[in-house]
Amino acid sequence: MNTTITALLTHRPKTTITAASLIAALTAAWAAKHLGATATATAAAIAAAYTAAAVTAWHRSLRRRRLREARRTAADTVAYLAADLAAGTDPTRAIAAIEPDWPRDAASTTRRLATAWAVAADLGAPAAELCRKLAEHLREDEQAAARARAQTASIHATAALLTALPAAGVALGEALGIGALAFLLGTLPGIACLAAATALQAAGIAWTTALVKSVGVETA
Known about the structure:
mainly alpha
């Protein structure tokens, strides 16, 4: 099931996000129907918004993982290319040999390899050495990115915790019989509080994203 959803999210992200949001909205509306029309509409809107945000974040996470894997594969392939060229393999045959394994998501590495190849062709520089240096630089870039991701892991964990805490608070209120959902979903002051909380959470996520970007970690 998870594999199917992941495949849909990878290849049909907009459709998957829309469908998930609609399902969440309908489910929330059904669950809140005993609280009245206002609560039903509010629950549907909130469920759709949070589901869309969560599935979008999931999609971006999958995309970042796919790009990292593509960069690692490309770096290994460039290293193999350098070894083939150093062993005296004809450049045309060497390039043809790596084409089936070249990841299509490694656009940046493709440009860097094309530049190195052009320098070798135009200036007569040794292509094997240029490819070896490029492979080293690609691996250094990946190691630096891994260190940056490790340094920002605590930021992500804190953001996830702060995002989940309001929902936990509402659940606790319901468990104690306070009627938190009826207040938040069915009254104007409650809806105002809900809107303010949603806006603050959005601002917090934006701030977290800015912090992560400031240390060079990809967030797209």
